[in-house]
Amino acid sequence: MIDAHVHLWQLGRNDCSWPGADLPAIHRDYGLDDLLAQLDANKVDAAILVQSQESDADTHWLLSLAAETARIAGVVGWADLTGDVAARVAALQVAGPLVGIRPMMQGRAPDCFDDPALAPGFAALAREGLVLDALVRPQHLASLARLARRQPDLTIIIDHAAKPLVGDAIPADWRAAMADLAACPNIACKLSGLLTELAPGAGEGAAAPFIAELLALFGPERLLWGSDWPVLTLASDYAAWLDLARASVPVAAHRAIFADNAARLYRITQGAAA
Question: Where in the numbering of this chain does the Amidohydrolase-related domain appear (predicted)?
Answer without folding.
Answer: 2-268
